[in-house]
């Protein structure tokens, strides 16, 4: 088995998910300001150290996605983040795209950038201790969007990134996110997500990316946040798994993003997925659904570090518990 296949299997091992703590400096700074914390390199570091040193995090988390700033930072005891995280029994990863930028020729749509010089950057990240990477492409639903151009350009970039990662022995998390913003129905989200995934699969094939050495990080198939009818977890699970069935059994695993769903809804949807028998594991790679309650509980108060950690621990436990349905489905 190649290094990537082994790492991808470890990232999606039964009963565990991935913690996405890779907000960019500007996004993280905004979130800190929202809870009254002055955003500095040190406050961002303190917050990430709080998250990853949560007691027994490794019981429900296989890997943590960091941003470039955190990858180069040290714990308060002086150990570099990647090394300290490895010691905790968790795999360190790194977000390598440089963000979704306005796409020339496609008003209102974005192209995720970061391909220039990527192989050299990946070598540096691997040297620093990262074993996997993440790249997020973003699609917005309207009546006319996403356009074919946005789907083609972003899928091509995702595949070029994934191929570069595998050459550097880093597992690529391939994240095509169809956003929840808008009034669209669950059916429309299903249609768009299926089209995006078809293009991504085609481009991954064109770039000879091995599916056993990637982790797919999709949105759940869900109605737009301004749609009048809210789908049940069973409806979300059924629609999501129906779209995912187009992925070959060889795929290492699927780790969902939470996409701005309330934490409890994301967990309920994840639990409902587990009653579907699929050839690949279905787990979580949540950002906001895991960390927002922790950030709110801590809000920069040194005396509340443990309260923040308890909030994270309870959401990790709830999501790890949601994965248990699978054990009943697929007895050893
Ligand atoms: P959310 O779970 O908050 O959507 O974040 C996941 C992520 O990694 C976005 O790129």
What would a concise description of this structure say?
One of its GO terms (molecular function) is fructose-bisphosphate aldolase activity. The chain has 332 residues and is of the alpha/beta class.
Task: Give me the secondary-structure topology.
Blueprint: H1 3-11, E1 17-20, H2 25-34, H3 41-52, E2 61-66, H4 68-71, H5 81-87, E3 91-95, E4 99-102, E5 110-113, H6 118-128, E6 132-139, H7 148-167, E7 171-178, H8 186-206, E8 215-216, H9 233-244, E9 253-256, H10 263-273, E10 282-286, H11 288-298, H12 305-322, H13 325-329
Parallel strand pairs: 1-2, 1-10, 2-3, 3-6, 6-7, 7-8, 8-9, 9-10
Antiparallel strand pairs: 4-5
Helix pairs in contact: 7-8, 8-9, 9-10, 10-12, 11-12
Structural class: alpha/beta
CATH architecture: Alpha-Beta Barrel
Order of helices and strands: HEHHEHHEEEHEHEHEHEHEHHH
The CATH topology turns out to be TIM Barrel
Chain-averaged pLDDT: 97
CATH superfamily: Aldolase class I
| Strand order in space, largest sheet | 1-2-3-6-7-8-9-10
Total count of strands:
10
What brief labels describe this structure?
single chain, 332 residues, alpha/beta, TIM Barrel, 8-stranded parallel barrel, two-stranded antiparallel ribbon, 13 helices, 10 strands
């Amino acid at each position: 088995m190649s290094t990537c296949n082994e790492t991808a299997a470890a990232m999606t091992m039964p009963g565990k998910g991935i913690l996405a703590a890779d907000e960019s400096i500007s996004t993280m700074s905004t979130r800190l300001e929202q809870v009254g914390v002055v955003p500095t390199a040190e406050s961002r570091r303190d917050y990430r150290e709080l998250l990853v040193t949560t007691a027994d995090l490794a019981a429900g988390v296989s890997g943590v996605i960091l941003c470039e700033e955190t990858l180069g930072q040290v714990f308060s005891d002086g150990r570099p983040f990647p090394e300290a995280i490895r010691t905790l029994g968790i795999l360190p990863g790194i977000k390598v795209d440089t963000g979704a930028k306005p796409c020339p020729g496609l008003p209102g749509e974005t192209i995720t950038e970061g391909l220039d010089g990527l192989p050299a950057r990946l070598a540096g990240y691997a040297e620093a201790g990262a074993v996997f990477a993440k790249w997020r492409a973003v699609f917005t639903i309207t009546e006319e969007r996403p356009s074919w151009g946005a789907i083609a350009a972003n899928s091509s970039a995702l595949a070029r990134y994934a191929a570069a990662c595998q050459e550097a022995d880093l597992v690529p998390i391939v994240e095509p996110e169809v956003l929840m913003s808008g009034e669209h129905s669950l059916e429309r989200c299903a249609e768009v997500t299926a089209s995006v995934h078809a293009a991504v699969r085609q481009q991954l094939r064109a770039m000879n990316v091995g599916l056993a050495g990637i982790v797919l990080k999709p949105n759940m198939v869900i109605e737009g946040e301004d749609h009048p009818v809210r789908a049940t977890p069973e409806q979300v699970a059924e629609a999501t798994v129906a779209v995912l069935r187009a992925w070959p059994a060889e795929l290492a695993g699927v780790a969902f993003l939470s996409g701005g769903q309330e934490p409890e809804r994301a967990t309920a949807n994840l639990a409902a997925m587990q009653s579907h028998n699929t050839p690949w594991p279905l787990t979580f790679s949540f950002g906001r659904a895991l960390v927002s309650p922790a950030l709110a509980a801590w809000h920069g108060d040194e005396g509340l570090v443990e309260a923040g950690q308890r909030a994270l621990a309870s959401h990790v436990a709830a999501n790890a518990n949601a994965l248990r349905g699978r054990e009943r489905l697929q007895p050893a």
